[in-house]
Write a sequence for this structure.
């Protein structure tokens, strides 16, 4: 891996380190550069949204992953995170619809939803929806 300012792998690793030591503004900057240099990276938009959620709020983070959902509709991870942000914002119906979209793309990644929103495991409607997709797959 080259250590150049335009190397997306280097910038991603730098952003991760900056995040770990709570340099959120710098982590956001590094992740945004990765998004420009390698926008198809399946993880960058979720990671960027986490930093943005911490810095400026969930609505701004939601905007990031929703844009990624539009540009990269095959990436279920962005849909799972979008569903979690919608849930946090109190948009339960839209959250459930987005969660269902994520499940239709990759039901095995449903833990992505719970990893960010562990309290959702207590929601009977969410569990029922996930069970329905787990059943479909078997």
């Amino acid at each position: 891996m080259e250590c150049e300012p335009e190397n997306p792998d280097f910038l991603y690793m730098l952003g991760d380190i900056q995040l770990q030591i709570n340099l959120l503004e710098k982590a956001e900057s590094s992740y945004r550069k990765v998004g420009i240099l390698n926008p198809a990276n399946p993880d960058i938009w979720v990671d960027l949204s986490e930093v943005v959620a911490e810095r400026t709020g969930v609505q701004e983070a939601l905007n990031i992953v929703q844009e990624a959902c539009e540009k990269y509709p095959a990436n279920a991870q962005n849909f799972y995170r979008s569903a979690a942000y919608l849930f946090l914002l109190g948009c339960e119906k839209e959250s459930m619809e987005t969660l269902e979209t994520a499940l239709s793309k990759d039901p095995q990644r449903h833990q992505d939803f719970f990893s960010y929103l562990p309290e959702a495991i207590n929601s009977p409607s969410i569990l029922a929806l996930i069970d329905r997709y787990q059943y479909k797959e078997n």
User: Anything to note?
Assistant: The mean pLDDT is 93. Helices lie at 8-20, 24-37, 44-55, 58-71, 76-88, 92-105, 111-116, 124-137.
